[in-house]
């Protein structure tokens, strides 16, 4: 598959939030306003790209030669957790407002299934190093896209009258479900028509 | 060669972990952020509940606003006066403390024995869910629905059913976060000052003839409390008595004389043994 194909696949067809339903915690938690959604989106893009590249290296350079691929989950978690710690420290140093905006959700990237998901999926699809990186990046972009759409929707929802039992997270999940329905329109056929 | 495989697994995981741990240790030294000591002590003074009652996202954000933007020191609801004066000590300023702790209370004592019901509710045990069905199972549309959504949302277990099976707030455990007020669909949960001696335990704004039909402990708006305790701050509006707590006069006469006995002490003195 070409790199363009990988990008289209992970941004639209296999959008992590809206078709694979991974990483729903930040999707609901950080989508209250556009500003923090953008910050979280960039953090996820950054972590996902790095994580998929590094996990590719570890998988192909350590786990496969030693024939211990069964350790992929535990090593990936280890790598992702420390990577997120590192990103957190860097952001705290460089941009305290962004650090505050991300709040609890940055440490939550540590155990975010979307990050582990892209690492495992990139390995499963047997991409090369560049392919893994691009897959991670575009999965992050897909995450960013869903988060951004959701946050703009929720900013408008704040101004609307919503029946009391649906207020807050409930209406967010319902809107998310409807968005997921719309994203189901992107499928493999689109890819075939676009790039053959 | 299972033994070799175990060895490889052990070595690779240990070395990956070791390298990453060492890297993080070095990074944390290099990227250390110096924190303001005043900020730290302010944060320690604040309750740390992150309830958001001050208008900031959490206690640390409020502390930062105090240091950087000279935010007022009296915004912390759960901490109340004590926290405000401690903050003032730390900041080296004198403040006029005139805030009194507010607590919430359920302004309704209508239960199975005293109120008329429209139907028997068997749905999800949540007030807001029940409210969707004809605004609750009681004939009275203002009262406590009694399914305890406020009990679930309360962060400090201040709200519970009392010995009569009615929802009641323990004012000593209440931290004034106001979450129960937000969740309550009927608005029967209302603020009262911590020092309040009596409350009007009714929220019904229906006319006397209507109230009498569906509830034996509802306020009919007879204005007898206004006459019996003129200094007590009783105001009857929309067929419902309310107390203006700025008035410091006695309220006992009014409570004794209330025909439906809906003016009740704000604190339960002796725990009644249910018969």
Classify the secondary structure makeup of chain A into a structural class. Answer: mainly alpha
Which spans of chain A have pLDDT < 50 for at least 5 consecutive residues? none
Q: Helix content range of the residues of chain A, please?
A: over 70%
Number of helices of chain A: 10
Describe the structure.
The complex is a heterodimer of chains A (196) and B (275). Chain A has 196 residues and is an all-alpha fold. Chain A has a domain at 24-160. In chain A, 75% of the residues lie in helices and 0% in strands. By secondary structure, chain B is α+β, with helices and mostly antiparallel strands. Chain B folds into two domains: 38-91, 3-methyladenine DNA Glycosylase II, Chain A, domain 3; 102-265, 2-Layer Sandwich (Alpha-Beta Plaits). In chain B, α2 (37-45) crosses α3 (59-69) and α2 (37-45) packs antiparallel against α4 (80-91). Chain B is flat, with a radius of gyration of 27 Å. At the A-B interface, α3 and α4 of A face α1 and α5 of B.
């Amino acid at each position: 598959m070409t790199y363009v194909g990988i990008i289209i696949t992970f941004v639209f067809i296999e959008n992590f939030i809206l078709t694979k339903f991974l990483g729903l915690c930040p999707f609901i938690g950080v989508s209250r306003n556009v500003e923090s959604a953008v910050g979280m989106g960039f953090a996820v893009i950054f972590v996902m790209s790095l994580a998929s590249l590094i996990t590719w290296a570890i998988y192909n350079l350590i786990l496969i030669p030693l024939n211990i691929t069964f350790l992929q989950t535990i090593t990936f978690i280890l790598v992702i957790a420390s990577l997120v710690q590192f990103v957190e420290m860097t952001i705290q140093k460089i941009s305290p407002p962004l650090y505050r905006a991300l709040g609890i959700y940055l440490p939550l990237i540590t155990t975010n299934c979307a990050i582990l998901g892209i690492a495992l999926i990139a390995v499963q699809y047997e991409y090369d190093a560049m392919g893994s990186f691009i897959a991670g990046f575009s999965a992050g972009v897909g995450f960013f896209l869903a988060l951004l759409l959701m946050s703009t929707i929720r900013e408008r929802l704040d101004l609307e009258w919503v029946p009391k039992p649906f207020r807050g997270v409930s209406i967010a999940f319902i809107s998310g479900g409807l968005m997921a329905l719309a994203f189901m329109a992107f499928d493999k056929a689109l890819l075939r028509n676009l790039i053959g | 060669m299972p033994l070799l495989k175990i060895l490889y697994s052990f070595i690779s995981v240990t070395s990956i972990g070791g390298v990453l741990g060492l890297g993080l240790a070095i990074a944390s030294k290099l990227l250390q952020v110096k924190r303001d000591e005043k900020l730290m002590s302010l944060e320690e003074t604040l309750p740390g509940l992150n309830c958001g009652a001050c208008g900031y996202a959490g206690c640390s954000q409020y502390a930062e606003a105090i240091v950087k933007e000279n935010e007022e020191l009296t915004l912390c609801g759960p901490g109340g006066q004590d926290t405000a004066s401690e903050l003032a000590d730390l900041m080296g300023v004198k403040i006029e403390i005139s805030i009194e702790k507010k607590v919430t209370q359920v302004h309704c004592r209508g239960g199975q024995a005293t109120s008329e019901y429209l139907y028997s509710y068997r749905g999800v045990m949540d007030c807001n869910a029940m409210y969707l069905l004809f605004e609750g199972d009681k004939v009275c549309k203002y009262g406590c629905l009694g399914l305890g959504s406020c009990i679930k949302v309360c962060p400090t277990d201040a709200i519970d059913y009392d010995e009569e099976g009615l929802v009641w707030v323990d004012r000593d455990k209440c931290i004034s976060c106001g979450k129960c007020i937000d969740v309550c669909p009927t608005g029967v949960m209302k603020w009262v000052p911590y020092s309040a001696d009596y409350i009007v335990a009714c929220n019904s704004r229906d006319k006397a003839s209507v109230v009498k039909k569906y509830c034996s402990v509802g306020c009919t708006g007879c204005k007898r409390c206004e006459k019996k305790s003129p200094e007590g701050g009783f105001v009857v509006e929309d067929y419902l008595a309310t107390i203006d707590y700025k008035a410091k006069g006695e309220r006992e006469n009014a409570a004794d004389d209330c025909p439906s006995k809906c003016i009740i002490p704000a604190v339960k003195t002796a725990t009644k043994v249910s018969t």
